[in-house]
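Data deposition worksheet. Section B asks for the primary sequence of the deposited chain exactly as it was used as input, without tags or linkers unless they were present during the calculation. Section C holds the resulting structure in token form. Section D is free text for depositor observations; keep each observation to a single sentence. Incomplete worksheets are returned to the depositor.
Section A, Depositor: J.P.
Section B:
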Amino acid sequence: MTHRRIFLIFLLLAATVSSVPSALADDARPLLAQNESRTDPSPSPTPMPTQGQENAAPDDLQQQIKALHQKVEELEKESEARKALRISEEEKASAEEQVLSAAGREYTLIPAKQLGFEYGMQYSYLSSDLLEDLRNSEGNRLAVERRGNHTFYHTLFLEKGLVNNLSINGTLPFVYKYDERSVDDDREVTDLGDASAGLQYQPFKTGGAWPDMIVILEGSFPTGRSPYKINPETELSTGNGYYATTAGLTFSKTIDPVVPFGSLFYTYAFPTSDTDQIQPGGKVLTEVDAGETLGFSLGMASALSYKTSLNFTYQYAYHTETEYAFTDGTAYESNSWVTSSFSIGAGWRLSPKFSLFVKTAIGLTSDDPDFTFSIRIPVRFNLGD
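Section C:
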């Protein structure tokens, strides 16, 4: 029983007690009139109360009790409605964080005293056609070999809030690749990918006229199988083969009913001499300088409800030339290249701790996968009050 209901019942009892003396006084008036008639030589006739007058006070009391019960029920319904409204406001306050989490974890910052764990699965498919010059008894002719590369990434992601505006995170991927060819030369590999660790820092509080900004600093490590240590004719790689560092900024701003967001990033790949690859002609690769990458992304997210969201993202990256050095003193430089993609994602908040995010991306250049499909399941744990 709520405190409001106890208070109303107390008022009801008080009203009942106050109306009892009034009723008793009405019943005592005829007796007083009879006593006065004995002393008064010329008494006036006193009318006797009728049956309706005797029941008037109890009927009024019952109506008051009924009205008070109705008022209590109305107040209880109003209290439940206000409680439901407060829950909706709390869910609405976290809508921006939810839709940005669906767009990508780089747009959110985990609070202090929370630990975040995430499992992610990504599948990408890249197809290509290779022209080969086949020599036979009939002369030279060209043949087309179709190749399809299937790649699965299983990623474990861990993040911890150090303070409310600073967090640390780490990623460990497991990679499976299957290279399918039209000739009997299929290849596959299962190994670790390149691990990474990073920091996220939010210099300014959320809100105000300016967009929310997060500063990102991340480093990747060549824990995967290097493409410069394998036989490219028979093996597949699972990593980049070099150390790299990335610095970036992300921006977001709530403009009801959508949340526009974007990012800028710069990646520097450190030159590596940890190579052991023999090229055609007997030359040995001694050093690789993968160069730099500069890119950006733009997108828009919207909360369809307090538990579902939808987002659209465009990504662009420009990669500078890669330089290769060999034991005979020669060096080669590749051309610069561009990657670009467009993705559509959605998110579902399954519970206060669990969410499900899916995304499909379409490659817009020949260096991008034809398409990519990914699933993320983040979980957050409170470590204390």
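Section D:
The chain has two domains: 3-39+55-91, 96-382.
The chain has a mean pLDDT of 80.
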